[in-house]
Write a structure and sequence with these properties.
The protein has 179 residues and is of the alpha/beta class. It is built from 5 helices and 10 strands; from the N terminus they run βββααββββββαβαα. The chain has a 6-stranded mixed β-sheet with strand order 1-5-4-9-3-10. A two-stranded antiparallel sheet has the order 2-6. Strands 7-8 form a two-stranded antiparallel sheet. The longest helix is centred in the last third of the chain and has 17 residues.
Length: 179
């Protein structure tokens, strides 16, 4: 896998989100923020996540959607339960994924990070194929960007977020990356 000059990964299905903008001039992309999401919560598959990130979520389609349909957010990538990889924002642009956040004394993590969503919930384990795909994605990103850190959404926004949750296997990710 390799990130192209357009900031896109050829192996990912690209679905353009307008929930992004330009990064500050000179911002080096040094952080990957790992998230988890499922819509509705605890349900996998379908296109609700894609619809949320592209401002097309129907608030009448599920009671949970009424509260989130007007949110304007995105992520660079989504790793589905079956390992499918989707991209919503080119890596050189700023996706709106971390919100109010801070990492190692730097605020506004969206300015210097790539956001990766794993389809899942904080209360259950992720799939083997998701770890494999995440590892491939991280290697591709590290080959194109000066990434030096990987953090959970809960690490950069501890007062607001708890994802990807206690069931994410950090030791496994680090061991895989060390190979």
């Amino acid at each position: 896998m390799k990130i192209g000059p357009d900031g896109l990964l050829a192996q990912a299905r690209y679905i353009a989100s307008t929930n992004c903008d330009e990064r500050p001039p000179g911002a080096a992309i040094t952080l990957l923020v790992l998230h988890s999401i499922s819509l509705p919560p605890g349900q996998y598959g379908g296109d609700a996540i894609e619809r949320l990130f592209t401002n097309r979520l129907d608030p009448a389609a599920h009671p949970y959607f009424r509260d989130i349909a007007t949110l304007r957010l995105s992520s660079h990538f989504l790793v589905r339960r079956d390992g499918e990889l989707l991209q919503f924002v080119p890596v050189q642009q700023r996706a709106w994924h971390a919100g109010a956040s801070c990492w190692r004394g730097r605020s506004r993590c969206n300015d210097f990070s790539v956001g990766v969503e794993l389809e899942g919930v904080e209360e259950s384990a992720f799939e083997d194929i998701q770890y494999a795909r995440l590892n491939e994605l991280l290697r591709a990103l590290r080959g194109s960007l000066p990434l030096s850190d990987v953090a959970a959404h809960s690490d950069v926004a501890p007062d607001r977020k708890t994802d990807p949750g206690a069931h994410f296997d950090w030791a496994r990710l680090l061991a895989d990356l060390a190979r």
